[in-house]
Design brief:
Length: 180
């Protein structure tokens, strides 16, 4: 791919990856390359014109080169399981040790919005609170600026901001409002 500052998604799970791609391109500002295993015979989401397609084993250097990983802004790893995700992440790190990488996990959850009255000023406040109180890790937010994966910790979070996190359970409004 002759792209730069794009997003590369490594791995494809029907439905799940389709939703992820739709969210990544929702603002129309992100060029995306989807890399799927050889058992995905053709572009699985051709209706998403902003998404280019590469097929092959997701760990060799040639797939990383064809997808333009070294020139990408971000790589999202969506392996079939934890071991596959780790192997793909290691290959990405080898292709570009400085790349911003996100590993998608099977139980990704999101809060539709931060409730009015929450006491968080920044993404870092949310990250620390949810990590300490419920063992969750916040991966991204969607606010006025659109979807931001792994934003700087000083990123402001207003009421209504969508928070994407990984955790063992759903987080309640009460847990967010009671934050100090």
């Amino acid at each position: 791919m002759d792209l730069a500052q794009h997003v590369v998604v490594l791995g494809y799970s029907p439905g799940r990856t389709d939703r992820m791609l739709t969210e990544l391109i929702a603002e129309g500002r992100t060029q995306t390359v989807l890399c799927a295993w050889n058992d995905v015979a053709q572009h699985p989401v051709p209706e998403l014109r902003e998404v280019s397609f590469v097929r092959g084993d997701l760990t060799p250097a040639d797939v990383m080169t064809r997808a333009g990983v070294a020139r990408a802004r971000t790589v999202v790893v969506d392996g079939r399981d934890g071991n596959g995700t780790l192997a793909i992440a290691a290959a990405v790190d080898h292709a570009d040790p400085g790349i911003h990488m996100v590993a998608a996990l099977r139980d990704l959850t999101r809060r539709e919005c931060l409730p009015s009255g929450h006491r968080f000023a920044t993404f870092g406040d949310v990250q620390v609170h949810l990590g300490r109180t419920v063992g969750a890790t916040v991966l991204a937010v969607r606010g006025e600026e659109g979807l931001v994966v792994s934003p700087p910790w000083d990123t402001s979070v207003a009421a209504g901001t969508t928070v994407y996190y990984v955790g063992k359970r759903r987080i309640t409004d009460r847990e967010l409002i009671s934050a100090r």
